[in-house]
Amino acid sequence: MATSPCSSSGVSSSSSSGLGADAGLEIRTRSVEQTLVPLVSQITTLINHKDKPKRSDKTLQAIQRVGQAVNLAVGRFVTVGEAIANENHELKEEMSVACIEARRAGETIAQLTDVASLDHPESDSHITIFTDKTGVVKAARLLLSSVTKVLVLADRIVIKQIITSRNKVLATMEQLEKVSSFQEFVQIFSQFGNEMVEFAHLTGDRQNDLKDEKKKARMAASRAVLEKCTMMLLTASKTCLRHPDCESARINKDGVFHRMRLALEQVIEIVTDSRPNGENEMVPISIYSGIKEFKNKVEGLRENLYFLSKENLLTMLEVILEHTEDFTDSAYTSHEHREHILELSKQAKMELEQLVSVWMQAQNQKTKDLMEDLEVAILKTCQCMNELKREVHSAATSLAADLLKYHMDHMVLKALKITGVEGNLEAVAEYTCKLSEQKEQLVEMCRLLRHVSGTEPLEITCIHAEDTFQVTGPQIISAAETLALHPSSKIAKENLEVFCEAWESQLSDMSMLLREINDVFEGRRGEKRVYLSLPRPGKHNANLKALKPVKLDTEEQAKIAKLGLELHLLTSDVDSEMEKWEDQENEIVQHGQGMSSMAYSMYLFTRGEGLLKTTQDLFHQAEIFATEGTKLASALHAFSDQVHDDDKPLLLLEAEKLISMCRQLQITAKASVQGKSATFTKVDACILKTRNVMTLLCQLLPLCCKLLRKNKAGNGCLKPAPPWREDRMRTGTNAHTPERRAETFGIKSLENHVTNMTFLESK
């Protein structure tokens, strides 16, 4: 998006007023985009006043207040921008220029809105917003452009932090590769663990801030690789140190390091939006997306007979049918599915030929009969493509269901562990061949599922799963060979366990992915964003021992099922309420969506499904959920500052309730417990308190939506935000200490300053 930074946020009036940010600036994060929304809104309000014939004293005073307040807020904003420039010398020149431009534009707007003291602003020689609309538009453009530049430059600092963190991780990895003693390894790995935690937090924040869902999915996949590989790196390195002359141990370790480097590189590609050697990312087109685009073109003929050529349409169908060969050529596609796909492919060609024939005639002679024939041909072609889509979906998902059910007993992995401990090299070789066959089946399954996944994020998840099976299979084999060569080695046994767990975990994730693909296909659930948090607690303990995963047994799942179902219903209610909001980028909606996604993950946990595998995962998710709820409460308080409707006391009361409930949930989630019974009680308490928060959210969202609609209807339920207060700045007396600089001079501080530009949209 390179035009108006707020075009996707519903602030469309800016374009009608001639406003727009610098066309060369692409805004890739939600935080930058949302920070600009109030500024665009208020500037647009000022400009639109020119078109109103009647101007009361109240209106003139309101205009002047808005102009002065914008100028004051810009001044504060620029002060923080200049501080950022001083802290980051490589950006100082660009930042300083943008800050000067912003300050100048803010002052111009203040001068042009200095109208309250003028009885007849049109006849006075003083130039104002009423006599020089061009000047206001020019100043507004300059202000938006310069503020956007400052925000984007500040965002570069976040990118720089991620790159610096990645470089630290890479440097420590190089040291880990070269160590020759256990003592040295333990010391360096402890440092590596801390660096990975820092990198995980930075990239996690970035992932949640990305606007592009495709990039967000790629980031989640890369971070998942890094999380799993951290434990693999530990055991593989220890095995190599214990058996330095073992070739299979070295191959196993090298594979982990290589995969981690690739994942780190992909994170940087996403963050910087660049690829090595300037090459473009090539993502294969799926059958689902190909059919969707093809149908759109075909249906477009109803409106315009000349917007594309018949060659274009024929080529599109040819590409789709080429992709169906992935199914018809696959050894794992059933004979029945193969025959149906071939039959439908042949029918699709015939339907398109008929469509093209009628289409060409209609271009020459647009009669009523021909247009009716064209409509029939369009319907038949689209119906055929729908049947083809349904058939390939059935072929892929039925294969996946069968394979997952067949391999869920993990018999080959169990056999490898047993024969490895026995030192039976011949039996290990036999079972590694079986694992290789299983890997090929699962890789093929992922390729076929990608064609029918339905959304780009799910496509990326399929590609990630394919890569995981492709890489983890050979790593299990090398780990099993090492154990067979050293059957009494505890570390070699532990290493094989870690790689087998990664395989089992990916199989479990595939079951969830299959359900999501079916949900999207059947329209039951859209692109519900699942909150992924890294690192999970306990992954990088100083003693290098992983926490033993604790899962709910069948009896416990049955006990908690009713509570989980209530939570599921509440997430649906919250989603329905949020769909009613016109502005989906509103901060209240964003926090609500995050909370709903996390609550849905917790519901899946009660069923033994989803990304939360252990009770520790659930407790960590509950903490993050409570934090998000506290952020929502802050947003509600900010919103209430602008409300003088009768509902304000109720809004404040509900916001205080939310803070209290989130605080209680955090205390419960952080509480230390021991024993199975106590752990289950804690799980029950966390889900119960999450349900209560979601119940409150169902009441809050309609109330806020009603207040916003009142404002748009002109009922005046919003009032000017209070004047700038020094205590709102996050820069305290100790703000310049090193540990506070990152917090003070970052994009969050700039958000705080622009937030104070939200004032009265005067009547």
Describe it:
The chain has 763 residues and is an all-alpha fold. Among the domains are: 30-49 and 57-116 and 131-156, Up-down Bundle (Four Helix Bundle (Hemerythrin (Met), subunit A)); 161-275, Alpha-catenin/vinculin-like (Four Helix Bundle (Hemerythrin (Met), subunit A), Up-down Bundle), CATH 1.20.120; 287-400, Nucleotidyltransferases  domain 2 (Four Helix Bundle (Hemerythrin (Met), subunit A)), CATH 1.20.120.330; 554-712, Up-down Bundle (Four Helix Bundle (Hemerythrin (Met), subunit A)). The protein contains 23 helices and no strands. It has helices at 13-16, 30-48, 57-87, 92-112, 133-178, 182-209, 213-242, 247-272, 287-300, 310-328, 335-364, 368-407, 411-422, 425-451, 456-485, 490-522, 554-579, 587-606, 615-640, 648-670, 676-712, 738-744, 747-755. It is globular, with a radius of gyration of 30 Å. The two termini are 32 Å apart. Mean pLDDT is 79; it is low at 1-24, 117-125, 526-549 and 715-763.
Low-confidence parts lasting 5 or more residues at pLDDT below 50? Answer: 1-24, 117-125, 526-549, 715-763
Shape-level CATH architecture of the domain at 554-712: Up-down Bundle
Overall geometric form: globular
What kind of assembly state do the chains in view correspond to?
single chain
Largest sheet: none
